[in-house]
Design a protein that fits this description.
Layout: E1 7-13, H1 21-33, E2 37-43, E3 71-74, H2 85-93, E4 100-103, E5 112-115, H3 117-132, E6 137-140, H4 147-162, H5 181-191, E7 202-205, H6 208-220, E8 230-232, E9 249-251, H7 254-271, E10 279-281, E11 284-286, H8 300-307, H9 310-320, H10 328-336, H11 343-359, H12 364-377, H13 381-425, H14 433-441, E12 446-454, E13 459-467, E14 470-472, E15 476-479, H15 486-489, E16 496-504, E17 507-516, H16 521-579, H17 585-607, E18 617-619, H18 621-631, E19 635-637, E20 645-647, H19 649-665, E21 670-676, E22 680-687, H20 701-712, E23 716-720, E24 723-729, E25 745-749, E26 766-770, H21 776-782, E27 786-790, H22 796-806, E28 816-819, H23 828-834, E29 844-848, H24 854-858, E30 865-868, H25 873-879, E31 882-887, H26 892-901, E32 906-910, H27 915-922, E33 927-931, H28 938-950, H29 956-971, H30 979-986, H31 990-1001, H32 1005-1023, H33 1028-1034, H34 1040-1051, H35 1055-1060
Length: 1063
């Protein structure tokens, strides 16, 4: 239950993950958690800002009302940028009677806490003018409608005027958003042609975020900071530490803003009292090295004036290290015990202070400077000689420790968030999201979560949530102005709550309320982005499912209706036929004709519902015509032996019968004429009555069914004079074929074929291409061609050619005029593979060890394969002619014995290879080694088919070089490998190694290496929770984008698909 004494206040600001906002909200959250106050943080974006659809965040602002909280802290100046100051003030009035304290911009009737950005910017610019003689100062402006940004620009203009420097409008950028410092610099340098260091010696920026982006671009352009140009910022945010040199800036008093505004609101809520005046906090300059200074206090004489006495030095330490009054004793103790006898106790005291300072984001350069001035003005000789060195070492160690601790914490956060993102990718139902959030967010310190989606203008829907280990899954609607359903809201425990707006693609979706002890804006923003995407995905999936279900219902209803009508009509129609069986022949024929027409009409109707399916297989049209001849009289003109086609033989036979009967019914005799044409096989049904017009049958339902069958079979129908013409396209190896772009038929010939067989004489342009000449270039030249093949032939060389064609992305879809392929197969490729006659004289493929049948299937040798164990291999060789041995067993002595009885090639595939293993096998002739993953490569399989035909293997000494390269690639696959390193390891030139490697393996060394890395990456994706970037890094890829491209090229899918498909 909630604590009755705790107050509920809101913090309303544009964001919690950029610039000074992260520090402000986390400090206010810390104060709230220490003072029995529940804080609700609303990062609702700048008002009406279209950048990155920020205006969609504004949808959560109406939730800040008296039903949700008792008072409001609002960083009002941060809401500007896209609207006028007056618009922001109008927005503040929508808070109604809620007591409030605003930061940066006045709300009438309530106190305001501001910071003197004007004085802060002026101080750092004056520092450069007076200390570094700056004369040409450029300025990058912030957003035009931002109150504080205008203050900073005025400070720049007034400082130039007060010091007598000329204002040059060319040195001032146009107003830019805080995130576009790089674009502002580009305007000065590229559009206006200004040269840093020549046209301006100093660049002042409206914020540290803009300074960082501009500084990075200056560094990228080759300019040195501060050597070529000085650079200044404002805020003293984390960005001021991210360039190569620490940056001079002015500190926005964020901590003081948080404390002052929180205390003012607490007083207002406590007794309704508060100051009647507004508070302006100073901005102090923070001098670092980007202006040209070595130390922030300047020279020794300048520093003596500032910190030359113990009291001044102590005060400087308090201010620079942001030490609260309650901790001032620790500073004094460090100074008092500097020369204590117990050095270890003193170092422990310093270590605790330093670690705490660095852990909260303190500037490590301040530590070095403080020690420098202490040694300069106050330290004893023994301190300088001994203790100072130990302190410098301690500073470095603590800096390294804190950096590693922060990096580890960030990596753990990333691990949990990545796991959540992965699970969200699989979300199909939005109600499953709260359980996922509980699983992954509780370890991060996000103790409770409540998911709400917008319903309409009046209602929101609570989807579900969690509170520690308890799931709250009761879905319910509630009034839109409430944060949560009343029963849940009243029972919220005291804590810090962040209300993250959820939106995607110009659509506000809802929000997530998170109770958290982790005050990290970046984690909240990453969570918001991932959750928004997942919810949008479920919306799209729901919409698609609903549309599909609706379409399926309509289709099912239509199909069932027509199917029921069909079956319902067929039975009485058949009964009618039985009733007229004994009647006169003319009546019976008339009834039969009507029944056929009705049946055809029903089939035609079903063809449009999906219930009239075709079973497409390879068939011989000559056989189809022969079947037709047994039941119907017609004359035939054409070749007796026709190439095979692909289609539903039964349905096509039905179409042929309908046309025959239709023409014969008109009183004419029928001639079926076949013609072999480049687009396909043409069937012409010609009536003996020259005056008969085929087009008169356009409206006949039976002919409409014929047209439907032919079109569904991929063909075309035309009616010309007294002819009805069908054309069925040539099949491809894969199935349906692409249109050819040339008029030439290319016949793939065998070893002993010197001319194209007469079977193809009907084609005007025919050329012979020997199968032995099929290489990469020839395959590319064949793209768009019409292919010719005779399925009666069988040889290893033709088998290789068939393999290359069937595995080519375009030629596998090229139309093929093919004779003598066995019918009944689903594709021409499977038909031709099956037609290979097992011939023991051609030799067998032997697989020894754990290699299965799949390899033989890939090579098209399922009928010529023998699987055996190690102890059986010599008996296999004794009783069979072995063409090739595949093995995964390392046994040099066994292979030496095999080599004495057979010269056939041996290929050994293992997961890992050692150098000494490769050396032992190098002396055995006609033996190749490779890693097992290479079996997935079509190039390697093509090389094996070539080896089956030509038995070509490199000589042992040359092959030994390839074996060494394979071992080297396997051992170093996870490391960066250059071409010269591989060549040096093998002790040959790069070009020579590439040639012999490709000849032996069928792949270049770099293709082989990429496949090995992708194999390793696939295992990592399946067996670990590493991110894609980590997997890429651990498998030798320097760039995640390149890794993803290579992965997709080799695997045909994205890396994430492998992980999502892993059970």
């Amino acid at each position: 239950m909630s604590d009755a004494r705790s107050r509920k206040i809101a913090l309303l600001l544009a964001s919690i993950h950029t610039g000074a906002s992260n520090e402000l909200w986390s400090e206010i959250a810390r104060l709230a958690s220490l003072s029995h106050t529940s804080l609700f943080v609303f990062p609702g974006g700048r008002l009406e800002c279209e950048e990155n659809q920020e205006y969609l965040r504004n949808a959560i602002y109406p939730l800040v009302n008296s039903d949700t909280v008792e008072g409001v802290l609002v960083w009002a100046s941060a809401l500007a940028g896209s609207v006028r100051v007056e618009d922001v003030q109008d927005f503040l009035e929508t808070l109604g009677p809620l007591p409030s304290v605003s930061i940066g911009l006045k709300r009438e009737g309530y106190p305001t806490v501001s910071f003197d950005a004007y004085a802060g910017v002026q101080s750092v610019i004056l520092h450069c003018i007076t200390k570094h003689k700056s004369r040409r100062i450029a300025f990058i402006r912030g957003p035009e409608n931002h109150y504080s940004a205008q203050d900073r620009y005025r400070a720049y203009c007034d400082t130039l005027d007060q010091t007598g420097l000329v204002f040059d409008p060319r040195l001032v950028s146009d107003p830019h958003p805080w995130t576009e410092g790089s674009a502002a610099l580009s305007q000065l340098v590229e559009q206006r042609g200004l040269k840093p260091g020549k046209d301006f010696d100093t660049l002042a920026c409206s914020s540290d975020m803009m300074m960082f982006a501009a500084g990075k671009q200056l560094e990228a352009l080759g300019y040195s900071i501060p050597g070529d140009v000085r650079i200044l910022g404002y805020n003293d945010s984390s960005e001021s530490h991210l360039l190569r040199v620490p940056c001079t800036t002015a500190r926005m008093p964020v901590t003081e803003l948080a404390h002052m505004s929180f205390n003012l609101l607490s007083d207002l809520l406590e007794d309704g009292s508060g100051p009647s005046f507004d508070i302006l906090l100073p901005s102090h300059p923070v001098i670092r090295q980007s202006c040209g200074c070595t130390y922030s206090l300047g020279s020794v004489e300048q520093a003596r004036q500032s910190v030359g006495t113990p009291s001044l030095f102590s005060a400087w330490l308090m201010q620079s290290f942001r030490v609260m009054e309650s901790e001032s004793r620790n500073i004094q103790r460090l100074l008092d015990e500097a020369d204590s006898d117990d050095e270890q106790a003193y170092l422990d005291l310093v270590q605790e202070f330093v670690h705490r300072f660095l852990d909260r984001g303190g500037d490590p350069n301040l530590l070095s400077e403080a020690l420098h001035w202490y040694c300069t003005f106050f330290a004893s000789p023994s301190f300088k000689e001994q203790r100072a060195s130990a302190l410098r070492d301690l500073f470095l160690r603590q800096r390294d420790l804190v950096a590693h601790q922060h990096a580890y914490a960030l990596s753990m956060q990333a691990k949990h968030l990545d796991a959540l993102k992965c699970d969200l990718l699989g979300v199909r139902n939005i109600t499953s999201i709260p359980a996922l959030l509980a699983t992954h967010l509780i370890p991060l310190g996000l103790e409770a979560g409540y998911l709400v989606l917008y319903e309409d203008d009046e209602k929101s829907t609570y989807i579900g949530g969690y509170d520690n280990d308890m799931l709250l899954e009761e879905k319910q609607a509630f009034a839109k102005h409430l944060l949560l359903p009343q029963a849940i809201q009243e029972n919220l425990v005291e804590g810090v709550y962040v209300v993250e707006p959820l939106f995607m693609d110009n659509q506000p979706l809802g929000y997530l309320v998170i109770r958290t002890t982790l005050f990290s804006g970046s984690v909240m923003e990453e969570l918001r982005t991932s959750l928004s995407s997942a919810i949008k995905g479920t919306f799209l999936l729901d919409a698609a499912n609903k549309a599909r279900e609706e379409a399926e219902r309509a289709q099912r209803a239509r199909t069932e209706f027509f199917a029921n009508i069909s079956e319902g009509l067929r039975n009485p129609l058949e009964s009618i036929l039985l009733l007229v069986q004994d009647k006169d022949e003319a009546l019976r024929d008339q009834v039969e004709e009507h029944l056929r027409t009705a049946s055809h009409l029903l089939d035609l109707t079903l063809s449009y519902t999906g219930a009239f399916e075709l079973e497409r297989t390879i068939f011989n049209p000559s056989d189809l015509l022969f079947s037709l001849k047994t039941s119907h009289f017609f004359m035939y003109e054409g070749m007796p032996d026709l190439p095979v086609l692909q289609g539903d033989r039964a349905k096509l036979l039905q179409a042929f019968e309908i046309v025959l009967q239709y023409i014969q019914k008109q009183g004419g005799e029928v001639t079926i004429k076949t013609e072999l044409q480049n687009p396909g096989l043409q069937f012409s049904f010609i009536s003996s009555q020259a005056a008969w017009k085929a087009s008169m049958g356009n409206q006949d339902p039976s002919l409409s069914l014929v047209q439907r069958i032919i079109v569904m079979s991929g063909g075309s129908v035309s009616m010309k004079d007294n002819q009805i013409i069908f054309r069925l396209g040539w099949p491809s190896l894969e199935g349906e074929s692409l249109a050819q772009s040339t008029s030439t038929l290319t016949y793939i010939g065998g070893e002993e074929e010197s001319e194209v067989p007469p079977l193809f004489s009907a084609f005007d342009h025919v050329q012979l291409l020997p199968s032995s000449s099929l290489n990469k270039q020839k395959l590319a030249e064949l793209e768009g061609s019409l292919l010719g093949w005779d399925g009666r032939r069988s040889s290893a060389e033709l088998q290789l050619a068939l393999y290359l064609l069937a595995h080519h992305p375009l030629l596998s879809k090229a139309p093929m005029v093919c004779y003598h392929a066995p019918p009944g197969y689903e594709s021409l490729a499977s038909s031709l593979v099956s037609s290979k006659i097992a011939n023991q004289e051609d030799g067998v493929l032997v697989l020894m060890g754990e290699l299965g049948h799949s390899l033989a299937g890939q090579l098209g040798m399922m009928d010529n394969v023998i699987l055996c164990a190690r102890q059986e291999i010599e008996a296999v060789y004794a009783s069979n002619k072995v063409r090739l041995l595949f093995s995964d067993i390392f046994d040099p002595a066994l292979y030496e014995r095999i080599r004495r009885i057979s010269p056939s090639p041996i290929i050994i595939l293992k997961e890992y290879w050692k150098y000494d293993e490769a050396e032992q096998l190098s002396l055995i002739p006609r033996l190749i080694i490779a890693h097992r993953f290479v079996m997935e490569s079509s190039e390697f399989l093509a090389r094996i088919v070539s080896m089956l035909t030509h038995q070509d293997v490199l000589p042992p000494l040359t092959g030994a070089l390839v074996k060494r390269a394979i071992v080297y690639l396997g051992e170093h696959a996870t490391n960066p490998i250059s071409r010269w390193q591989l060549a040096e390891a093998v002790n040959v030139s790069e070009d020579y190694l590439t040639r012999i490697f490709r000849k032996e393996i069928g792949l270049s060394p770099w293709d082989y290496l990429n496949r090995q890395r992708i194999h390793l990456a696939t295992n990592l994706l399946k067996q670990s929770t590493l991110t894609i970037n980590e997997v890429a890094s651990q498998t030798g890829f320097q760039d995640q984008a390149y890794f993803c491209r290579v992965f997709r090229k080799i695997k045909g899918m994205a890396p994430t698909k492998v992980r999502s498909s892993t059970p």
